[in-house]
Amino acid sequence: MRFLFNQEVPEMETGAVEIKAIAREAGRRTKLAVSSALPGVDPVGTFVGGHGARVQAVMNEIGEQEKIDIIPYEEDAAGFIANAMSPAEVLSVTVNEDEKRATVYVSEDQQSIAIGRAGQNVRLASRLTGYELDIEAKAPVKAEPKPRKNIEDSLMSVVEEVAE
Length: 164
Hints:
This protein is α/β, with parallel strands linked by helices. Helices cover 38% and strands 27% of the residues. It has helices at residues 2-8, 11-14, 43-48, 53-62, 77-84, 111-115, 120-129, 151-163, and strands spanning 17-25, 29-36, 67-72, 90-96, 101-107, 132-138. The strands form 2 sheets. The protein has a 3-stranded mixed sheet with strand order 1-2-3. α5 packs antiparallel against α7. The longest helix is centred in the C-terminal third of the chain and has 13 residues, at 151-163. The N and C termini lie far apart (56 Å). 24% of the residues are buried.
């Protein structure tokens, strides 16, 4: 996988972007954690390419049926784990560094996405991050409804800010 992306992403040769970790179930799904050494360079966008051309070229080599998730790498374990759980939307992550375990909290409607078909998503995320992951559903916290503003109030507040 690293070799195929090396052929498609010339920025890897220059060191602008790199693959930090790979977790793969051949023929089914791959998760890549990528990072950038240069500020302002989007590592995920670099690997995906314009209109998905770069990742599509790699998929053509390995077989169309295999999906590739490209996620941003983070030094912070909780942030990295949250990214690795993509496409699930993570509410929070609790990390136990001593045991290399983490509990990932998702809303009830995201639980099946977080786990994935036959546990595939959580298994690949676990391999990618190096942490044993537990998925827990959390009931969403009801937020106080915000009073609705009408458009005139919003426009007037902007005009007042500009006037100051």
